Amino acid sequence: xxxxxxxxxxxxxxxxxxxxxxxxxxxxxxxxxxxxxxxxxxxxxxxxxxxxxxxxxxxxxxxxxxxxxxxxxxxxxxxxxxxxxxxxxxxxxxxxxxxxxxxxxxxxxxxxxxxxxxxxxxxxxxxxxxxxxxxxxxxxxxxxxxxxxxxxxxxxxxxxxxxxxxxxxxxxxxxxxxxxxxxxxxxxxxxxxxxxxxxxxxxxxxxxxxxxxxxxxxxxxxxxxxxxxxxxxxxxxxxxxxxxxxxxxxxxxxxxxxxxxxxxxxxxxxxxxxxxxxxxxxxxxxxxxxxxxxxxxxxxxxxxxxxxxxxxxxxxxxxxxxxxxxxxxxxxxxxxxxxxxxxxxxxxxxxxx
Length: 353
Known about the structure:
The chain is α+β, with helices and mostly antiparallel strands. Helices cover 32% and strands 25% of the residues.
């Protein structure tokens, strides 16, 4: 039965696995049947899966002497197929609500549930939960912050003895002024390439300022990486192409020849206002002679009129594009870790953390 069950799940047969190595004791394959597996899942649900993960994490950190001074937190979405109609009842069953939400898999048409993990020592989980599919990262982050003290206390760490690391979307334009200020402090590479690697190590530089958020002052370390984010660079390339297309479309509908010089100069000013942070439009007006209508005189030059021709040139704004490319290689670390005293971290050590 166990082998057939595993085949139905698309898994390798248990009879071919070293169960003793996996579980610490020898268990016959037939013990892994539908009923026993279902009972085990029910027992885990009754005990609380997050409690089980926490207990395993505590034992792992003790047994393997893991570094718990830098816990990191993040969430991810898991997309699923099916209706999950029970989640739409007035009193749905206990557990995470499977529903539509912000898909980190870029599959918004599918329902999902969320998973949160608090990890230490390069990704070893010490706490985890499943969350509703429409959960907000900001809400779950706030909730874990309210519990982080009690969780880390079980690992023997009190307030101020650990640095909590999490994603954040609290970047302001003020923090990015370092790009224009040009007052970077070089940090250099943080990792060495393996032998034979042709890809150069990323070089880092930092600029530190401060920012006030919700009444509290935080350190804001703006970090620039020479290994620019490729996705953001592609997005910028697309923005440049769209900017050129948009300006050219606007230019294509403009009148080019005017009877009055003043009208031509006014049109030229309007043309140059089409310039933006990525492109510059330069306009010029030149007089041109056109022959008047009618038969020219037999013994003289044809009478001429003066018209005013509007022309323009579209060019990439090199300074603006260079700034945008520089911004695309930047990210901001917001922190309340002190710069002096116990537990202090300078910009480089904060980036390493």
